[in-house]
Design a protein that fits this description.
With about 350 residues, the protein is of the alpha+beta class. The chain is built from nine helices and 20 strands.
Length: about 350
C-alpha cells in the first residue's frame, strides 16, 4: 500500500510532509518523494530507498520551502522500484504533480491513446496517465480538468494533485482507496491514514468513494463526480497518536503481534452484556442467522490471514462451509451466493 500525505497551510509544509511520510512508513515502501509549490512552480524531490535518503537529498538540494505540497511512499506495482518510477509524477508541461495509491486498471489503453496524441511518458507507472489526462483537459479551469480526467479512470485509487496555476490548492480524489481530510487552524491536509493527521488536528472528514475535494488553508470544498457540492461531514478522532505508535517495539508488526490478546479482549468486551453476546449493529435476529448456509470472508494482507483462522473456527463450531478470498481478486469472480450467504468484509 502506498502512502499519501498533503498539506495546504501558511507555514513551510516540507517538515510536515516528511513527518507524515514517516508515520505512513509502516505500510511498506521502496521509494519516496515530495512535490511543493515554490516561487519557481511545482518542485519535486524524490529518492529510491529509505526516507533518510530523501531527507539527505533535500539538504543537498539546499532545502525546500512552500506552504502547499504532497508527499508519497511507494510500494511498487507498475514498474520496478526506481527513481524514475517514484512519486510524485509530473505532467509533460510540469503544470501538474500527482501522487497515487491504488491501481488504474485501464491505464494501458489510456497510455496508448495519450501517446498517439503526442504525450511522452517518463516512467513505467500507471499513475502517469493521470498527469497527462489533467494536462489534456486543462483549459484554465482546474475543477473541470479534474472532473474530466477522473471520469476516464477505472480501478481503485486515491489521488493527491497540485496545479502550478493555483499554488494554495490541494486536490484529493478517492475511489475505493483510503484517503482522509484533516481540518486544522490555518491549514487543511490529506492522508492515507488518520495516524498522519492526528498530530495536527482531531477534526477529520472521511471522503466518500467517488468524491473530490479542493483544499486551501482556509477552505474545503467537497464534490461528487458530477460536480454537485457535498456536505462536509466533520468527525472528531477520540484517541491520540501515542496509541498508534510503536510504544518501544522495534517495528509495527511486533507491536501488533504482542497487542493481539488485549485487542481481542477489548473487541469482545464491547459485545458482551450481562453474559450475553450482543451485536447491536448487526440487525440479524437468531432466526435469520440460523438460515445461513454459506460464509464468504473477504480481506487483504494480515486481515486475510485473520480470515483464514476464522474459516477453521467457523467450520469447526458452526459446520457451515466457509471460503476466504483476497478482496482484490473477489471483485473479478462470479461467486456462488444467495439470500442465505453471509459475507464478512475485513479491513486492516
Amino acid at each position: 500500500m502506498c502512502g499519501i500525505i498533503g498539506f495546504s497551510g501558511t507555514e513551510n509544509c516540507v517538515p510536515l510532509l516528511l513527518e507524515g511520510l514517516k508515520t505512513l512508513s509502516y505500510r511498506g515502501y521502496d521509494s519516496a518523494g515530495i512535490a511543493v509549490h515554490t516561487d519557481g512552480g511545482v518542485t519535486t524531490v524524490k529518492a529510491k530507498g529509505k526516507l533518510e535518503i530523501l531527507e539527505e537529498k533535500l539538504k543537498t538540494h539546499g532545502g525546500l520551502f512552500g506552504t502547499c505540497g504532497i508527499g508519497h511512499t511507494r510500494w511498487a506495482t507498475h514498474g520496478a522500484p526506481s527513481l524514475r518510477n517514484a512519486h510524485p509524477h509530473l505532467s509533460g508541461n510540469r503544470k501538474f504533480a500527482v501522487v497515487h495509491n491504488g491501481i488504474i486498471e485501464n491505464y494501458a489503453s489510456l497510455k496508448a491513446e495519450l501517446e498517439a496524441e503526442g504525450f511522452s511518458f517518463a516512467s513505467e507507472t500507471d499513475t502517469e496517465v493521470v498527469c497527462h489526462l489533467l494536462e489534456k483537459y486543462y483549459k484554465g479551469d482546474l475543477k473541470e480538468a479534474v472532473f474530466s480526467a477522473v471520469k476516464r479512470l477505472e480501478g481503485s485509487y486515491a489521488l493527491g494533485i497540485l496545479c502550478s496555476d493555483m499554488p494554495e490548492t490541494l486536490v484529493a480524489v478517492k475511489r475505493f482507496s483510503p484517503l482522509i481530510i484533516g481540518i486544522a487552524e490555518d491549514a487543511n491536509m490529506i492522508a492515507s491514514d488518520v495516524t498522519a493527521i492526528v498530530p495536527h488536528t482531531k477534526k477529520v472528514i472521511y471522503i466518500g468513494d467517488g468524491e473530490i475535494a479542493f483544499l486551501t488553508p482556509s477552505s474545503v470544498e467537497l464534490f461528487d463526480w458530477q460536480g454537485s457540492m457535498k456536505d462536509r461531514r466533520i468527525s472528531i478522532v477520540n484517541w491520540d497518536v501515542v496509541s498508534a505508535e510503536k510504544n518501544g517495539w522495534d517495528h509495527f508488526m511486533m507491536k501488533e503481534i504482542m497487542e493481539q490478546p488485549r485487542a481481542v479482549a477489548e473487541t469482545l468486551e464491547r459485545n458482551i452484556k450481562n453474559g450475553e453476546v450482543v451485536f447491536e449493529g448487526l440487525k440479524l435476529d437468531a432466526t435469520r442467522l440460523k438460515k445461513i448456509n454459506r460464509i464468504n470472508i473477504i480481506a487483504c494482507g494480515s486481515a486475510y490471514h485473520a480470515g483464514v483462522v476464522a474459516k477453521y473456527v467457523f467450520e469447526e463450531l458452526l459446520r457451515i462451509p466457509t471460503e476466504v478470498d483476497l478482496a482484490s481478486e473477489f471483485r473479478y469472480r462470479n461467486p456462488i451466493v444467495d439470500g442465505d450467504t453471509l459475507t464478512l468484509a475485513i479491513s486492516q
